[in-house]
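Hey team,

Filing this mostly as a record. A colleague (T.K.) asked me to run one chain through the structure pipeline before their review meeting, and I want the input and output archived in the tracker in case anyone asks later how it was produced. No errors, nothing strange. Just documentation.

Input sequence:
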Amino acid sequence: MSDDEDYSSKPPIRMTPGTAAESILPKGSSPRSSSSKGSSPKGSLPKGYSPKGSPPKGYSPKSRSENERASHSPQSIHNLPMLGGSPGADSPTTAELTAAEKDAAEAPVQAENGIAVDSDHGSFLDDGYETDSNPSISTSLASSMRHYRYENGRRYHRFRDGMYNFPNDEMEQDREDLKHALVVKLCQAWYFAPVHNMQNVLDMGTGTGIWAIEMADQHPEASVLGVDLSPIQPEWVPPNVRFMVDDIESPWMHPPNHFDLIHSRHIVMAVKDWPRLLENAYRHLKPGGWIELQEIHHFPQSPSEIPLPADLPLVQFWDLISQGLGNLGVDFKRTLSLASMVRDCGYANVTERVFHVPIGTWPKNRTLKECGLYWKTVLMEGLSPIALGPLTRGLGWTQVQVEAFLVGVRQCMREGKDNAFMPMHIVYAQKPWDDV
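Output structure:
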């Protein structure tokens, strides 16, 4: 491969029929076997691997508390209303499948270029979930890394206490996995960087590890590492993936020029020093390696380009979150400057793509309608855990004040009178070949 090869013109890595994203739909989809390359966890909400019976050959146990799993509310994320028929007599016809495939293919195009509004979106079922219920949590901790802290009825990490201002308990893990399902369904891709020699992959802020696990499953030739402050990854993982508890803003333990792809998603709420993080990533990428950042700008916008009212409770909510995080050292609006920061750090072939993530079921496109349901659920389920840390730690509110404020925000979101979306910025860039 020549040093002057132009990767900016390469097509993004996308799904093909039969790959993992197809099974994100819970009905009418094929559950994956643990050994099938390129497939994803079965069901609508991928959670890495939830083993039933014997583990796949070569997999290693990474325990998550059984007590936490059993305590999850039966009407939480797992019981979302979804589209699509079940196998058998009620299976979709060929024509319906073709229409669904067409919608799926059109979804990322509309998400980037403008979402068509469904004039009858109020008839789509989108209220089949509960919000903000507190799960029971296990007190059985295996090691010092599993020593957690409890605050306002939620569980938080203790390693590097205070670096991450949001819970890591079972309900929050489910919410993180739903966010992953949303992004894959919306973008029809796990990543866009044109990596052609996938040997070493790093997932910064891996969370539940679902992206790292699916990447390892799709790329058995690669070694995938997920790093996070919390050891909350699932029980069974492919043999080519491992997880490390560490702070990605601290000095890295790996040698320079090591990774072919460094990926992160949904970490803008946590990172305090972006230039330092990007410099660390640059140093540890191989020449010609790629970094990809996927972040949602959590400030709702209208598809009509008319600004949403400043007194709208949902708008006020995110403004307050931004203020609270700012007092805690986190610039919540950094999503908008990711591309410029990457350029300033010396990366080449910088590309930025922006996808509109709808809130609710107002899009006409069936796939985007489901994405809107996913995202509305993520936000509704997350109002309390998102608000508690920034507002109590950052603004000095009490838990009672937070919950009183959230009453109006929930009502605003349930009514859904204002069609709104949040832009997701995907930035990928390459370390120059001549920088050894």
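Quick notes for T.K.: The CA atoms of residues 250 and 277 lie 8 Å apart. Confidence is low (pLDDT under 50) at residues 1-94, 123-144.
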